[in-house]
Amino acid sequence: MIRGLIRTTLRIDNNLKTRIELLAIKNNLSFNKMLIYIIELGYGTYIEKFDKYYEEQNKKLKSEVVNNE
Fold this sequence. Notes:
By secondary structure, the chain is mainly alpha-helical. 74% of the residues lie in helices and 0% in strands. The protein is built from two helices and no strands. Helix 1 (14-26) packs across helix 2. The longest helix has 38 residues, at 31-68.
């Protein structure tokens, strides 16, 4: 994967910023790398939940089709 330079503006409160900075120091990472890691982790969790939700919806639709026949 090729990473390009992407400029974004992220507004977070000082409490959250401080907690992320402390996590970064604890894990020997820069603030930006820690922020990227947290975003990727959250995105991965979101995709898993999204896939699970639609799998359940497909099961419900299939069972309704079978019951209607």
